[in-house]
Amino acid sequence: MNRKARKAGIASFVGTTVEWYDFYIYGTASALVFGQVFFSSTLDPGVATLLSFITLWAGFLARPLGGIIFGHFGDKLGRKTTLVTTLLLMGVASVGVGLLPGYAQIGIWAPILLTLLRIVQGLAVGGEWGGAVLVASENAPKNKGILYSAFAQQGSPAGNLLSTFVFFLLAQMPTPDFIMYGWRIAFLASAILIVIGLVIRLTLEESDQMKAVKAANKESKLPLREVLVKYWPLVLLGAGALPLVQVTYFKNTFALAWATEDLGFERSAFLGVIAIALVVQFIVQPFGALLVQNMDMRKAITLLVVPEFVLMPLMFFAIQTGSFWVAVIGMSLATIPHAMFYAAIGGILARVFPARIRYTGLSLSYQLCSMVVAGGTPALAQWIVNSTGSIVGVAIASAAYAAVSLVCTLILLQKTGWRADQPSVAEQADIDELEALRESEAVKDGEAPSAPAAEPSGLSESAAASMRN
User: Fold this and answer.
1) Residues 240/364, Cβ–Cβ less than 8 Å
2) pLDDT profile of the chain (469 residues), mean per 10
3) How many Å apart are CA 148 and CA 316, to the nearest integer?
4) Which listed site, 72, 96, 330, 413, has its alpha carbon 20 to 30 Å from 222?
5) Looking at the whole model, is its pTM more than 0.70?
């Protein structure tokens, strides 16, 4: 089991790294060049950047639809098939952006086609995240789902770091060359990463919990309907738990544009600030899952989130000093709380829903937050700065994200269970349902209900053990 768990964790990590690389390079490019390349040169630079951020938001608006579509097939057909499909879809969209002519060549069609390709990216990542978390958590050893889900979560800082590193190298080019073709290299290079991700993903095995659901013929006929009818309060609480995850778009996307356009930072210098903070994130993030796995989850989440009320607002004032190292320290410190929270929240949300609709419920929670909060974060921050001329409003908004996440996560844990070493309410319901099926099968076969029964509908011993655990 441990070998399979490690293999699933590594496959989730590599696949999500590739997906997030593709998704994050768009955010970086939207801050640095899309306003100049895909919109009219007659626009004010601040307005062009704002419009660029709105195309970024389009991908987030599409993510719930991706979560619904791929969540449906992930709950009906299995996790592996959907993860291969989302990876291919992301690759096609990213290469398409790299080849797309600019406003000077095709006029208004440039931003229209750019937005459409961003929507395809959104569909892909909308279906990706939930499946990757579940492949890791459902294949984990008993009561280790939160810890193993952190493998999938590590793909976000890894992909972000890779995208930042690529743009850091490309930013060394002369500005005219970078604007003309340099940035496109980052998108075209994703084709190589997609191939690597596909090779690894095709070796994945379906999780034992999903095998158990299929073997017992317990797949939901319409997962979305069941989620919305029976579990909608948990979906909303799950979405409310996640704004803290989205503060990354304050510091990586908005702050990049703000620092380079308004504060005089060189592109390469501020990309260096972001890269150092991402290294910090990659190192400290897994400790969040370890902390939550080994103590009362309510206390652990409180310890992780409360410091962000102060550290994220302070980050903006550190950047405003114009000092490279002050900015590095400010961003690195602000990164620690939400990075550690991110490591654990995927595994926490995976415990909320029964296995038969888990992909849909998990994806819908995450992508609803992404649609409402994440995609709008750079645009909101830019609007605040454009309207007020001050960073204070942005600092206050970033602290508010942390407050909402803390309250909703604590309520969610109160409803679903706060002990990582024990099954959640939904997991216990799965166990009870499996035992009821076993007793029913035993009675049909003329055996006493307490006698050992054959696994229902061809259920394998490993799959049954996974459901019992």
Assistant:
1) no
2) 77 86 87 90 86 86 87 83 88 93 93 94 86 84 82 88 88 88 92 86 74 71 89 94 91 88 89 91 94 92 96 95 96 96 92 89 88 83 91 94 96 90 83 73 60 38 40
3) 33
4) 413
5) yes
- The answer to whether residues 76 and 206 touch, using CB atoms and an 8 Å cutoff, is no
Amino acid, single-letter form, for residue 405: S
Please, is 252 exposed, middle or buried when counting C-beta atoms within 10 Å of its C-beta (0-12, 13-18, 19+)?
buried
For residue 96, give Cα distances in angstroms to 32, 100, 105, 137, 142. Answer: 19, 6, 16, 33, 43
- State the alpha helices, DSSP H only, in 323-391: 324-350, 358-369, 376-388
Q: CB atoms < 10 A from the CB of 192, how many? A: 11
Taking a C-beta distance cutoff of 8 angstroms, is the pair 213, 355 a contact? yes
Per-residue CA distances from 38 to 102, 114, 164, 166, 267 (Å): 5, 8, 21, 21, 19
Distance (Å, whole) CA 367 – CA 398: 19
Question: Whole-angstrom Cα distance, residue 122 to residue 245?
Answer: 17
CA–CA distance, 456 with 21 (Å, rounded to integer): 42
Residue of 25, 281, 48 lying closest to 168 (CA atoms)? 25
pLDDT at 453: 40
* Residue 414 C-beta-side C-alpha neighbours within 13 Å: 8
- Kind and range of the H or E element at 19? helix 2-32
Q: Which has the closest alpha carbon to 63: 124, 117, 19, 133?
A: 124
Kindly tell me the number of DSSP H helices and DSSP E strands found in the chain. 25, 0
In a 3-state reduction of DSSP, which class is residue 9?
Answer: helix
Token readout for 351 is 């415990």
Structure tokens at 465: 């053990």
**Lookup: tokens for 249:** 């778009």
Place of tokens 């084709």: 191
Q: What is the DSSP-derived secondary structure letter of residue 375? A: T
What's 241-281 look like in SS3?
CCHHHHHHHHHHHHHHHHHHHCCCCCHHHHHHHHHHHHHHH
Sign of the dihedral through C-alpha 291, 281, 6, 25: positive
**For residue 168, what pLDDT is reported?**
85
